[in-house]
Every structure is written in C-alpha cells, then in structure tokens.
Amino acid sequence: MVNLWEDLETGPNAPDEIYAVVECLKGERNKYEYDKDIPGVVLDRVLHSNVHYPYDYGFIPQSYYDDEDPFDVMVLVEDQTFPGCVVEARPVALMKMDDDGEQDDKVIAVPTEDPRFDHIDDLEDIPQQIRDEIDEFFSTYKNLEAGKEVETLGWEDKQAAKDAIEHAQDLYDEEFQ
C-alpha cells in the first residue's frame, strides 16, 4: 500500500506545484489525520468549537515542519473533496501561526486543475474576506479545548510559502532520508 506522506513526491514541480493530501474537509468539524503507520486517514477528533473548516486542509508529502509534523496546507476549493484525496496545487500564500508555543505555519494553495482559481497567484489576489475567514477559523478552532492556545501571526506572500516548502523538504530529508 502507498504511504501518502513517504511515497508520494512533494509535487510535480515543487515548490511551484505541490501535492496536497486532504485530511479535513471544507464545511466539516471532523479533524481527520493521516496515520502513516496504517497507512490511512483516521478520525482524530471532532472540533470542540462550533466552527468548521473553511476549505480543504491537509499536508504536503515528504515535508516536515518546525512543529515536527508534515507541513500543513489549506487548499481553496469550491466543493470539498474527500479524506485522502491528492490535489495538485499552487502555493499562493503563507499564514504564520503559533500553536501552543510551536511554529505551525500554513501554506495556502489553489488547485491547478480548477480554472475558478487561475486568477489567484499571490497573497494580494486572495480576497480579504477569505483571508479573514481562514484567520478567524485558526484563531478560534481550539478555544474550547482545555489548555490549548493558538495565535495567528499574519500573512506572507507566495515566495515565503515556497521558501517554507523548501525548508520543510530539507527538514524531511535531514530527518528521514
């Protein structure tokens, strides 16, 4: 069986085009996580707060970030996909975040195969309302979990996202290759 974190490349042309392995779905409260030991997607928990994922959310294969997890990615989609779906995407921004004292940044990407997102190429192309919704979600989604503190730290452009992806690839290589 294919391990989507270890066996799948980071992307067809990383960091310009990446693969996003979807775990959590737009419009849902279920927090799925890919378990590389199974391998498969498992239900980690249901979000305690009355919020839902604004877009599909998952990780970038063969990446490892400063929080000692695969690098997180949120893919702007019109319709949800499914847990375990691999989406070819273009990074367009980076949202900086601190999760319980650990750097836990998020790549924001758009699907390469959806013409509705062709006009989004960089941070300034993402409508402010979408940025506000993503920020609000990550600022509040752990509010009702005991002892959890999350802080969003602002936005950076496409180049920062690509640099962070390369950093995550380097960390993966150092740790696992």
Automatic annotation (TrEMBL):
Q: Which UniProt keywords apply?
A: Cytoplasm, Hydrolase, Magnesium, Metal-binding
What cellular-component terms does GO give this entry? cytoplasm
Give binding positions for Mg(2+) 2.
72
Q: Which cofactor does it need?
A: Mg(2+)
Q: Could you tell me the EC number(s) of this protein?
A: 3.6.1.1
Task of the protein: Catalyzes the hydrolysis of inorganic pyrophosphate (PPi) forming two phosphate ions.
Q: What is this protein called?
A: Inorganic pyrophosphatase
- Organism the protein comes from: Halorubrum lipolyticum DSM 21995
Taxonomic lineage of the native organism: Archaea, Methanobacteriati, Methanobacteriota, Stenosarchaea group, Halobacteria
